[in-house]
Amino acid sequence: MTTQHSHVQSADHADLAPGALKHTLPALPYDYAALEPYIDSRTLKLHHDQHHAGYVTNLNKALEHNFALQQHSAEWLLCNLNQAPQNIRTAIHHNAGGHVNHSLFWKMMSPAGGGTPTGGLADALKRDFGSVAQFKARFEELGEKLFGSGWVWLVRRQGKTTPLEIFITTGHDNPLMQGVFPILVNDVWEHAYYLKYKNRRADYPQVWWSVVNWQEAGRRFEACNQS
């Protein structure tokens, strides 16, 4: 787990003095109610202010007595777990993963989202999945069928000619841990949808397309083409 990606923006950066808290909760890029009616404000507030905040708090706690590890981004920690002492490795894995994944997930949605992708991303989806509609159907299917808690991703492995893939991770694993670059992600943990959709898990990934930030996904697609 040593893969690094220079074009990946870290969840947080800071120059630290000893004892300083490294990791901080990023602000949502929109109001709690901005994604209504697809993502309700109660869920979004709980998801961001409690779940994501909890991962940040617990990550800082795990690193409290390890100044060397405090100097690294959450992405670095997640991709270099073997550098962490055994007694805090699991805590770093769970909480750095939760922090990194959620920090990207918020950017994957927008009040001005929805519609269809354009440009190079749209072309690649048509090439690798047959059509954008076929990609969406497969993405929904895998997210719905994921047993337990996890994430569904659109990714590309290293190399401009590699096809796009749909990638599933459980818990708070991230494709970066396997050297795979994430372009788009949906959170399919129950806390992402349960207050509104209850046990109708299949409804959530279908309506999620109404808020997807294709502009950000397209930017990430172009970024991975630069590697």
Write the layout of secondary structure elements.
Blueprint: H1 41-62, H2 67-70, H3 74-79, H4 86-107, H5 119-129, H6 132-145, E1 150-157, E2 164-170, E3 180-187, H7 194-197, H8 203-208, H9 214-225
Antiparallel strand pairs: 1-2, 1-3
Helix pairs in contact: 1-4, 5-9
Features:
227 residues; mainly alpha; 3-stranded antiparallel β-sheet; 9 helices; 3 strands; 44% helix; globular; disordered N terminus
Question: Care to describe what's here?
Answer:
- The chain is mainly alpha-helical and 227 residues long.
- Helices cover 44% and strands 10% of the residues.
- It has helices at residues 41-62, 67-70, 74-79, 86-107, 119-129, 132-145, 194-197, 203-208, 214-225, and strands spanning 150-157, 164-170, 180-187.
- It has a 3-stranded antiparallel beta sheet, with helices on both faces.
- Strand 1 (150-157) and strand 2 (164-170) form a beta hairpin.
- Helix 1 (41-62) packs antiparallel against helix 4 (86-107) and helix 5 (119-129) packs across helix 9 (214-225).
- The radius of gyration is 17 Å and the shape is globular.
- Residues 1-10 and 13-19 have low confidence and may be disordered.
